[in-house]
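FAQ

Q: What does a record look like?
A: Structure on top, sequence underneath. For example:
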């Protein structure tokens, strides 16, 4: 990690990383915690009927990491609130920022993909009979509902914690949600509209819902296969096996929960407070496959190629990018379009390209994936090592790149990288990252 040189004031630099993710003995909170897990290809997934990445966050741990929240509000927090607040607080600590003093003008940008954490609060209000509901408890239900029935809930409580007067809103684009917010932060900084943004991705998935989906898939498999056309994705056969991105045995995904936050500042703002720089967000682009089916995915990878080329523009060349952080979650369709895109972008040189995914460490956690990909990729850049693809032991034959199988990192000195995220329906996001001073 290095400090700022040069005079490019409107560069968007990453100065803080904070997390609230599944761990082995305790939750993953810091950049060092993240590196310890990812660099060794450690899987934090636990089988609870299905494999799932759970965050162990006790009430005492939450209050220790996010002090000063009035109990009147915090007792109505969902796990999404708690995870998002913890990752924000940790990112601020990492960046050397005071949560309640230094973020008054910051943009608080949140990405959410799922609504599982909101369902209980929503149903409680829906089912409450105003005629018979105890008057003394009505205010409590009102507070709980106002805080937790919409996907914008985490931005709401983060804004209250930081006392921010800046932009405060949520984007929902599935697993690409926080990736889009990172791109927006970069553009707002480049335009001079803001000097600092706190970007958080957070999601919680219901294990009960996942189990029910598993049962439904089993019953629907035969009917679906009979009607399936080439542009429709195959159903995943199970969630109860271990996800293995880029492995020849890959046949499922595992979900996880948690939050990831990155602090992004203008270079001038970071320099003014002598901040440490992890690296830069150079550009971000989003595309879609253009198919009529809202659940389908084009396996050619053309939309991903387009997103990459939009990121590169006329400023950079693909040959400058020796590492890609993949978005593979164990779904063979994702692996296929990534492999095709890499072949199109790199040609014969693709076989020497390193491209890995750490989704097998924490589970496919939805909206945090964009922030997590940026954090991990910049850590790899700083360490001069590429993390292995967790749970990949036997690389699939269709790969056009080196997935870094096993449990050991691979040495690589690099200054540019791309990080990918996707949403069901063919949405592709690419983020171009650089070392602090390129």
């Amino acid at each position: 990690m290095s400090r700022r040189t040069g005079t490019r004031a409107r560069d968007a630099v990453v100065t803080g990383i904070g997390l609230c993710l599944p761990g082995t003995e305790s939750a993953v909170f810091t950049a060092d915690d993240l590196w310890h897990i990812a660099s060794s290809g450690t899987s934090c997934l636990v089988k609870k009927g299905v494999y799932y990445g759970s965050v162990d966050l006790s009430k005492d741990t939450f209050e220790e990491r996010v002090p000063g929240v009035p109990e009147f509000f915090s007792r109505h927090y969902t796990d999404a609130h708690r995870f998002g607040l913890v990752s924000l607080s940790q990112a601020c600590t990492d960046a050397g920022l005071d949560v309640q003093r230094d973020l008054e003008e910051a943009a608080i940008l949140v990405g959410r993909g799922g609504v599982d954490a909101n369902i209980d609060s929503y149903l409680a209000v829906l089912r409450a009979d105003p005629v018979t509901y105890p008057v003394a408890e009505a205010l409590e239900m009102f507070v709980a509902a106002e805080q937790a029935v919409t996907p914008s809930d985490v931005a709401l409580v983060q804004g209250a914690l930081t006392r921010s007067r800046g932009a405060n809103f949520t984007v929902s684009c599935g697993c690409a949600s926080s990736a889009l917010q990172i791109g927006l932060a970069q553009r707002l900084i480049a335009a001079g509209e803001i000097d600092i943004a706190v970007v958080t991705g957070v999601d919680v998935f219901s294990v009960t819902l996942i189990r029910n989906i598993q049962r439904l898939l089993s019953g629907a498999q035969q009917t679906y296969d009979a009607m399936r056309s080439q542009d429709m994705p195959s159903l995943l056969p199970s969630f109860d096996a271990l996800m293995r991105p880029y492995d020849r045995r890959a046949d499922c995904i595992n979900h996880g929960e948690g939050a990831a936050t990155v602090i992004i500042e203008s270079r001038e703002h970071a320099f003014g407070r002598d901040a440490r720089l992890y690296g830069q967000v150079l550009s971000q682009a989003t595309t879609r496959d253009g198919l009529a089916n809202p659940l389908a995915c084009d396996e050619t990878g053309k939309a991903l190629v387009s997103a990459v080329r939009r990121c590169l523009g006329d400023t950079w060349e693909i040959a400058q990018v020796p590492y890609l952080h993949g978005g593979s979650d164990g779904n063979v369709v994702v692996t296929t379009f990534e492999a095709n895109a890499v072949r199109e972008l790199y040609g014969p040189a693709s076989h020497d390209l390193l491209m890995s995914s750490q989704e097998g460490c924490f589970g496919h956690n939805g909206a945090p994936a964009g922030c997590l990909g940026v954090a991990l990729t910049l850590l790899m850049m700083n360490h001069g090592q590429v993390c292995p693809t967790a749970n990949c032991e036997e690389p699939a034959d269709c790969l056009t790149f080196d997935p870094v199988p096993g449990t050991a990192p691979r040495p690589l000195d690099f200054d540019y990288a791309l990080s990918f995220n996707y949403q069901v329906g063919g949405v592709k996001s690419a983020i171009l990252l650089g070392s602090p001073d390129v």
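Q: Is there anything notable about this one?
A: The mean pLDDT is 92.
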